[in-house]
Amino acid sequence: MELAMKISLKMLSAAVLVAAPLSYLSAQPTTPVGAIGTADSTSAERGLTRAEVRADLAMWKRAGMDEFWNKSETPDFYSREYKRAYAEYVRLRKGGEYQQELDRLKR
Fold first, then answer.
1. CB-based burial of residue 52 (10 Å sphere; 0-12 exposed, 13-18 middle, 19+ buried)?
2. What is the pLDDT of residue 36?
3. Predicted local distance difference test score (pLDDT) of residue 15
4. From 99's CA, which of 7, 9, 83, 89 has a CA 20 to 30 Å away?
5. In the predicted model, what is the mean pLDDT of residues 66-90?
6. What span is annotated as the signal peptide, if there is one (predicted)?
7. How buried is 97 (Cβ within 10 angstroms: 0-12 exposed, 13-18 middle, 19+ buried)?
8. Residue 68 carries which DSSP code?
9. Is the CB of residue 73 less than 8 Å from the CB of residue 30?
């Protein structure tokens, strides 16, 4: 009986060791925390090109977002100025300006 109990306990332990990491992986969010949702799903799956990153950075700077991050402190995300600049960044990023910048960088 004691041998059967030890074997059962070992099998249970092995099952937990296999199942725990799998359940952890399946519970992970598919979108990173803090993602703004401006990238399409295909670019997220394949990764971004250097030109895409540079075009996005250009939109970030054009909207004035870089001004909020030039300080040693975290910006006030709730300030009117930050929200206005962020809205402009999202507009630029989703609009034709981003595609124009991307085309320019690909040349």
1. middle
2. 55
3. 54
4. 83
5. 93
6. 1-27
7. middle
8. G
9. no
> Tokens 């295909």 correspond to what residue?
42
Whole-number pLDDT of residue 52: 97
Cα 83 → chain centroid: 20
CA 107/CA 104 separation, integer angstroms: 6
pLDDT reported for residue 79: 95
Q: How far apart are CA 21 and CA 58, in angstroms?
A: 40
Q: Whose CA is closest to 91, among 52, 40, 38?
A: 38
4 pLDDT exceeds 90?
Answer: no
Residue type, 33: V
Spell out the domain ranges in the chain. Answer: 2-29+48-106
Contacting residues for 58 by C-beta, under 8 A, at least 6 apart: 101
Place of tokens 């990023």: 93
pTM: 0.57
At 87, list the tokens.
């809205």
The string of pLDDT tens digits covering residues 29-47 is 444 444 555 555 555 678 9
